[in-house]
Design goal:
9-stranded mixed sheet; 14 helices; disordered N terminus
Amino acid sequence: MRIRPLLILLFTYLICPVQSLFATERPNIILVFIDDMGWGDFSCFGNTDAATPNIDWLAKEGISFHQFYVNSPICSPSRVAISTGQYPYRHRISSYLADRKKNKKRGLANWLDPATPMLARYLQKSGYVTAHCGKWHMGGQRDVDDAPPITSYGFNTSLTNFEGMGAKLLPLTEIPTKNGGVKKGRIWENATRLGTPVEWMLRSKITGGFADKAIEFIDQAQVKKQPFYINVWPDDVHTPLFPSLGRWTDTRRGLYLAVLEEMDQQLSRLFNRIRNDAALHDNTLILICSDNGPEEHAGSAVPFTGLKATLFEGGIRSPLIVWGPGLIVHSQRGTINKSSVFSAIDLVPSLLHLCGVSAPKDALFDGENIADTLIGKSTSSRSKPLFFRRPPDRKNFRSYKNLPDLAVREGKWKLLCDYDGKRPRLHNLETDPTESKNLVDQQPELTKRLIAATLRWNATMPADAGDPDYNMKTRAKSTTN
């Protein structure tokens, strides 16, 4: 008699799709990727000028990582990295994607090739339902109106802004005037040509619109009893900044802090949807981080040096919070991990592992599987160095002039240099996180080795227009033609 239930289970396994049998056991994933937010902007990461209580709640029940990096200090390539598990330079996306003329001038592709490895696609093929809600910026912007739709990259549905192909939420703006009135407007109005349907919403409320889309998708996934993967990528803390009228101030910093707090509040309904549902609470992983460092006089990277577009720590180090009470080791809930060094490219193989999904053998990730670190089973770092390249159009940015072109993080060491290996800066980040003391003279052999490794790595990546060699080759080609 005891054999019969086992036979029934075996029979069910053989005739049912794998995703139906194991749907309730596979973790759901929500990736919140915030635009232009600094390392120190969450109050749980030290911000005393604004409060982010709903995000802080994730930290209190999850793990906060203090040595997490994104793989570019600017928008589009950072998004490519966290989506593909590969350095974005492989795909000729090393700065923000703009119009065709600017992309060509900088040596960039107009969009990410949809055939490239994608976390969403691998999860979708394994039985997950997938959604993208928010900014895209990996193709389909300005006059680039023939880019693939977001659903071509492994998403069942999408809702984006003006920088992506497909259904959109576009921003209405309100600005108080000196006479007590309100000036109303629309921005990116011509983006309606990049996909329909289009809904207009106050920019001060638009994160809530993306959160609502994610909640709607979660409801549908539960009805179908399928695990889900959702991108929620808000862009409201990116300039121009438009908080609610009652929060309006005369400074960029003040506007930023108001928008930051409102974003936190609007995300709360998504977090509460997970928190208050017993079926989701113990089987959902929420990750929240920023795509790059802050804009000048807006967000804060304190205690680090640098802004977005720079390879200093403030440009590439991001806060990361991982929440999942049923997935994270109990003793590690509410802890801060200050030792594990890893990056956005490592999230792709790690999340695939946690979801029990094997990528095709030809999917060669630059990222490493650090799944045990994400859920508190380990404090291991990635084993290989992390390499970085500046955006080709950002040799100078804001108050920073003649910026380094390349960087590498290996263990406690960080080296920055130019494309030819000159002007090296070597820092021990354990003792000098602000990168103020150059140790090149004290560590000549280490400096030489890291320069060589960085130049070798860069030579394996397609060049962009920031590299003098690229410009010489381009001029030579145009002359011969």
